[in-house]
Structures are given as structure tokens and as C-alpha cells.
Amino acid sequence: MEGSRKARVAKLAGLAGLVAVAASGCSTDEVLRFGWPVGITPQADAMRDLWTWSVVAALAVGLVVAILILWPVVFHRKRSEELPKQLQYNHPLEIVYTVIPVVIVAVLFYFTATTENYVTDKSHTPDVTVDVIGFQWNWEFKYENTKGADGNPVSTVGSSSEIPILVLPTSKWIEYKLLSTDVIHSFWVPAFNFKRDVFPDPDKNNQDSSFQNTIDQTGAFVGHCAELCGAYHSAMNFEVRALPDDLFQQYIQLREKVNPKTGKGYTTSEALSQLNCGDLCAPLATTTHPFNTDRTSRTGS
């Protein structure tokens, strides 16, 4: 009788779990990510793995704690006036209760530190180095070791008709050097699962002003300023365009040439249009809106 009751409870619990998953509309991958967003870099994948296994560990500890609480409630209810066996001075048991949490914390600390070191590692020789310059309320992306038609490094700045687009190669090491020319901004690409503040003086803040990553997926990805920086902070958007390396090299070569139609160097949109790679190289972003970047059209904030 007791066994059949337990079996029914187990079946009901399993059914409830399946209904909860099905009713949520989540795929298996979404369930296993426990809400963690999909990233496009190996660093983002490492953080997702840390999050997933941390949640699994938390659920396991929660289950054990729930069992330890419910076990005496169900199986050790008062049956007589006789006191049950007292364990408050059971030293081996107390040692176990102390050691287990210490081990759990140590293991979580180890994997957290290992993941952080991997995400912030800058030991690789970058294939592409980009100076990311933030200012109210726009971005400039300057490619080091390049030479545009005007003799200066290839650079992209947002305008009133086109948001700034940061074109990057996939499967290559990229280093981002961050700098602000006025107030504190924050360089945030949600698809990277990573953001970092952009300071006016990198030498006078407590965080590194550069980082490295690789991108393993082509596409267009929206970026934002994630630090409240003034009246038009919400409009300080940009886009990352991740291209295969061969297309990226063609893009840089075009940016270093003179456009025969204009007599000036190719702009970002003109260079992307020349690549003829469909939606991947659409010349204008469609996921954010252009904004007025004429700094003489406003008063200081």
C-alpha cells in the first residue's frame, strides 16, 4: 500500500514537470540554458556552461535540503511522549555538515575563477585591433594597422543617416581598446554576453580598458551604450556586422581605396554594398534608428 502510494506521487511529480516544460513553450536547449541568452563567442559559451552547471548544482542542493526538511516531517511525526534520539552533539555529523558546504563553495569558486580568467584573457596576438571611442552620443570604430584613402587609419563614425557599424571577421582574435572623449559610456553587445565601461581616462579607473574575443557566427548584432550618459543615451546604439574573414579582408581593402563615384574613400555602407553578400552586407542597420549626431545642434548636457 505504502509502495503504491509513493509510486503514484512520483508519477504525478514527473507528469507535473513535463507539463510545466511543455506549457512554457521552451525548447530543450532553452530549458538546459535556464534562461541564459545565446551568445556568438566562445567566451559567451563558457559563461553559459558556468551558469548551467551552477543552476544544476543549486537545484541538487535545494533538492537535498528539501528532502532533509520533509523527511522528519513525514517519517518522524510525533507518535508518543518519548523524545527521539538527539543528535546535537554528534561531532562526526556536524563535521560533515561543515565540510560539504565548504567543498561546494570551493568548487564553485574554482570554476568561476577559471571562466573569468578565460573570458578576460588577453594573451593572444590579435588579428584585428579596433579602437572603440565613445562620445555623446555616438561611436567611432578605428582599425589599427590600416590606412584609409585620406592617409589615416580606417574609421567608422555614426551619422544622422546611418548608425555606426562595427565590421568584424569571424574565427579571428579581435582586441577592443576602449576610450571615451567626454563622460563614462559602456560598450555592450548582448550577443557577446559581455560589456565593459568606457572611461575618459583609462589610466584612472579600476578596470581594464581593453579585452579580446573571437566571433564564431556571422550576422548582424545590435550594440548599446549601457551606462546612462546624458539626454540621448537611449539613442547611442551601434551594430556589429560579423563577416567571414575573406569578406572582411575585402571590406578593409575597399575602405582603403578611393570610391571613383565620390572621389573620397569608401564609407562603411558603400563598402558593404560592394561586397554583394545579401542581407549579411546590407548597407544600413534595420534594428536600430539613426539619430542626430550634429554636436552643434544641442547645448551641453
UniProtKB/TrEMBL annotation:
Its cofactor is Cu cation. It is an enzyme of class 7 (translocase). The chain crosses the membrane at residues 52-74, 95-113. Residues 26-123 form the Cytochrome oxidase subunit II transmembrane region profile domain. It catalyses: 4 Fe(II)-[cytochrome c] + O2 + 8 H(+)(in) = 4 Fe(III)-[cytochrome c] + 2 H2O + 4 H(+)(out). It comes from the Bacteria. Keywords: Copper, Electron transport, Membrane, Metal-binding, Respiratory chain, Translocase, Transmembrane, Transmembrane helix, Transport. The keyword Metal-binding applies. It is found in: Cell membrane; Membrane. Residues 125-254 form the Cytochrome oxidase subunit II copper A binding domain. Its main location: membrane. Gene3D superfamilies: 1.10.287.90, Cupredoxins - blue copper proteins. Subunits I and II form the functional core of the enzyme complex. Electrons originating in cytochrome c are transferred via heme a and Cu(A) to the binuclear center formed by heme a3 and Cu(B). This is Cytochrome c oxidase subunit 2.
